[in-house]
Amino acid sequence: MDFLMFQLETDSIIPLYEQLYTEIKQAIINGTIEEGVKLPSKRKLAEYLSVSQTTVEFAYSQLVAEGFISSEPRRGFYVQNLAELALIEQRTSFIVQDEGSRDSYSIDFSPGKIDTDSFPFSIWRKCSKEVISESNKDLLLLGHPQGDYTLRQQICTYLYQSRGVRCTPEQIILGSGTEQLMPLIIRLLGEKAVFGIENPGYPLTHHLLLDDREKTVPISVDTDGVIVSQLEHSNANVMYVTPSHQFPTGAVLSATRRTQLLSWAYQAENRYIIEDDYDSEFRYTGRPIPSLQGIDQNERVIYLSTFSKSLMPSLRIAYAVLPKQLIVKYKQKYSYYAATVPRMDQQILSKFMESGYFAKHLNKMRKIYKRKLEIITKTIAAYDPLVTISGEQAGMHLLLTFETVKPESELIAYAKQAGIRVYGIQEYVSTPDNLFNKPKIVLGFGGIQVEKIETSIEQLMEALKIKKLSS
Q1: DSSP letter string over 318-335?
Q2: Residue 101 — pLDDT band, cuts 50, 70, 90?
Q3: Crossing angle of helices 53-65/16-29, nearest 10°?
Q4: How far is CA 435 from CA 52, 216, 429, 440, in A?
Q5: 106 — phi, psi (to 5°)?
Q6: Cβ contacts of 263 within 8 Å, gap of 6 or more
Q7: pLDDT in tens, 103-123
């Protein structure tokens, strides 16, 4: 097959890649495109439909991820046998990587990076060998829809000890990333739910929730976290927050705001808080801050986290702790779902945690990231007061504020020209907010090697034309 004729609407609010994905998917389901058929190459289909190759690539990638087609190296894309797939019809949310992010950078301050040099490969390999065995043939079969009990039990114990989360394994559901769990939670909360989102905030969640702007309310963030008084005057009944280390500002939700937020949730029956605790494992100053879920007295907090920061982004294991009334609803509506996390991966992680390796790894990584942060702080101090740091109490990113008349976009452009990847805070803003009138850059340091941090910071400042004021 060299061509596929689909009518794509260029003036539609639905992106072209999503239209193409839907058309191909439906053609496969209804048999128009048969099993085993080779699809056109990305180049040929792009030329035939007069779209970019990137559009075709995004559509094909989603179809591969869902099992409708397979990608065979140097051969192409082939339609799979649908009889072997558990088809679950739901609205697909595309998380598209900006084409500019494909550029080559010599220094990458992306907040999603981790220290790959420090991963315990030998131990992970040991756990893998113990799991991948003929004695574990049952792992080839589908497991519990919520995820294997052994892993949920390990997560339950870990959350109580480290975050004060109070739950049972029965309240935990596993998913292949936040982007898989969030749509499920959104549907679970019902069509009448109106979501408050942090502004600025996590782009993935913004993408998922801003599909329906009438059901989304941006709530501003300051140095104490989300401004609850704004939430109280809105029509939102669900609030998505990152209270332990707000993304991207790094602010920690103050004790007063925590009390106000929980109080807001208790004032009406249908109010909930979604607590995304994405990098709480890494805190460098003061005592660990307990989770909102741990101090919630009325079952109004949905706790959400992943292993992306603590272990590796590619593991694709996220989890949600649902309040008891919502887990009952989940079992009624979604008990037929198949778990989206491979059971082999679940069992390897379970063994890794049960054997104590996870705790040891976290302790090791806290020291490494703390050391990186200390070097950054010391290096940036030479540029004070032209550059100041905030949000450095926890996590793997911080915020740099610049005293300059140059706009934020110009600073980002300077960095890009020098081969340095950084992000401005305006990239995470859903609506204009006058709280951020000075240029700010989100600086992720997880993926920068310790020995290269100082020179990397100095190269960034040179690119931004910021001079040292002290030595």
Answers
A1: EEEE--HHHHHHHHHHHT
A2: very low
A3: 50
A4: 38, 20, 11, 11
A5: -85, -25
A6: none
A7: 678 999 999 999 999 999 999
What DSSP element (H or E) covers 85?
none
CB 397 within 8 A of CB 369: no
192: tokens are 């009448």
**Distance, C-alpha 19 to centroid of its chain:** 24
- For residues 57-84, b (16+ Cβ closer than 10 Å) or e, as one string? ebbbbbbeeeebbeeeeeebbebbeeee
In order, the DSSP letters of 10-45 are TTSSS-HHHHHHHHHHHHHHTTSS-TTPBPPPHHHH
Q: Any idea which of 99-108, 138-147, 170-179, 326-335 has the lowest mean pLDDT?
A: 99-108
> What is the per-residue pLDDT for 56?
87
Q: Read off the amino acid at residue 51.
A: V
Contacts 24+ apart (CB under 8 A), 10-15: 15/94, 15/96
Q: Out of 59-68, 118-127, 223-232, 386-395, which region has the weakest mean confidence (pLDDT)? A: 59-68
pLDDT of 430 reads 78
Chain centroid to CA 395: how far?
14
Q: Tell me, what DSSP letter sits at residue 70?
A: E
Q: How far apart are CA 79 and CA 70, in angstroms?
A: 7
Is residue 434 very low, low, confident or very high in pLDDT (cuts 50, 70, 90)? Answer: low
Contact residues for 224 (Cβ-Cβ < 8 A; gap 6+) = 251, 253, 254, 256, 257
What's the rounded Cα separation, in Å, for the pair 316 and 308? Answer: 7
**Distance between CA atoms of residues 383 and 461, nearest Å:** 9
Give 319's strand partners: 174, 305
| Cα 18 to Cα 25, 52, 94, distances in angstroms | 10, 13, 7
